[in-house]
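#struct-help
A.M.: can someone run this one for me? Single chain, 454 residues.
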Amino acid sequence: MLRSIVTAGALVVALLAPTTAHAGQGQGIPRLTDRHGRTLTLHGWNIEDKAHRGDQALTGITERHLRDMRAKGFDFARLLVFWDDLEPEPGQYSQRYLRKIERVLDWAERYDVRVLIDAHQDVFGPAFGHRGIPEWATRTDGLPFTPHPDDWFAEYFEPAVQRAFTHLYEDQDLRRAQSRMWRVLAGRFAHHPAVLGYDLMNEPMGEQHQGEDLPTAARRIERDQLTPMYNRLADAVRSADRDAWVFVEPTPIVGEGVPTGLGRIDGPRVVYAPHFYNTAMEAGSDYDPEAGWIEAYERAVTQYPKEYQVPVVVGEWGPLNNSLPHMNRFYGDAMTSLGRYTSGWAGYVWCYGGGYCAVDGSGAFRTNKELTAEPYAESVAGTVRSASYDAAQGVYRLAYRAAPRGHRVTELSVPPGAWRIRSGGSAVVVRRTAGRASVRAAAGSEVTVTVERD
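D.P.: on it. C-alpha cells below:
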C-alpha cells in the first residue's frame, strides 16, 4: 500500500501534470479472458495473513473469508504469499507452506472464487522487519537502515533497502533463485482450478540515483530493471504453467498516477496490474472531488495497456479512513472510473475489523464499502458491446454478441438484496441462485441483459 512519502511534493506535481493519452472509455484496451475464451470481469479483495509465519503461516485466513466474499457478490481474491515462508533457506522449499496455500485455493474453488497468487513484499522483507524476500537473499553492502515506525513506506528510501533491490535485480545467483521459486510455486498450482494467474512481485521499488527526482527514478527502474526481471519470471512461470496469466506491476509511484516506464513483457497472457492509492488520502486526508486526481490517474495508467495491448486489473485500492465526509463520493467516482478501463480489481483488504478492513467483526460492510458491491458479468460467452452500472438508479446493463461457437452461458454476479433480471434477444435466464444468475444465448446473436434493484 502507498503511504505518505517524504518526497510527496514531486510526486503530486507529476501526478497532476497534463498527459497526452486519453482513457477513451476503455477503448483500445483488451479484456481479460478465461481458458475457454470467455470475457472476464473480476470484483474482489486481497486476502492476507501478515501476522503469522513459519508453522503458523496463513492461519489467519479461514474458509469464512472466501465464503463471505462470495456471499456479498465478489468472485476474485488476490492471495498474498511470501517468499521468505516458501523458501526459508536456500533451496529448501516448505511443503507445509505449499499445503496451506493449497488449502486456501481449495476453499476458493468451493465458493467459485478465482485467485491471483501474489508474491508479496513490503519494504523488501524480514531483514527490515517486514515480509517478502528472504534474509538470505538480502544484500545491503553494509549501508544504513533506520526504521520509520510512523511511516513505514518511507523505509523504502533507506539506503540499505534500495541497495537490496539493486542486488535482487542485478545479481545472477539471486535472479536464478527468484526464478526457481516461481517455477516451484507455479508448478505446484498449475492445474488447480481456482488459480487465474500469478502476480510476479508486489509494489517493486529500487535505488534512486543522486540528483534524480522520484518519477524519473521510477521510470528508469521500471525500464532497466523491472522489465527484464518480469520477462525472466514470466518465462519461469510459463515453464510450469503455460495457460495462466502473469500480472506485472509498476512501482507504487506509477500506481499513484505517473506514467510507467515499463517495456514490453513478451509472450501471451500478460496483465498490467497497477495499484490505485492517493498520497494525501493515505496520509489521512479526505477525498477532494475537485482535485482531478482520479481523472489524472486514469489518463496515466491507460497509456501502457493501450500501447502494449494488455488487459488491466487494479491489484489494490481503497483508503484507510473510509468514513470521512467525501468518501461516499470517492467510492462512486472510483467505481465508475475502474469500470471504464479495467477488467477488474481487488480492494484492500478483506478482513474483519477496522482500518482497511472491508467488513467489521460481524461481517457487515464498513461505512461506504458497500458501494463496491454491484451487479456485474463475471464471465461473458461472447464479445462485450457495453456494460455499465447506474448506482443511483440501481440498474446494470450488459450488451454483448454471443460467441459463434463454444461456451454459450454468461454468468452474472448479483449482490445481496432483491434484484430483477431481464434478458433480450435470444437470451434466456436459465439458472438463478443466491447471488448468481446464468444466461444462455443463441450462437452469434445480439444479447441484452438488465439487472435492476427492486
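A.M.: thanks! Residues 148 and 155 are 6 Å apart (CA to CA).
D.P.: also worth noting: The first strand starts at residue 39 and ends at 40.
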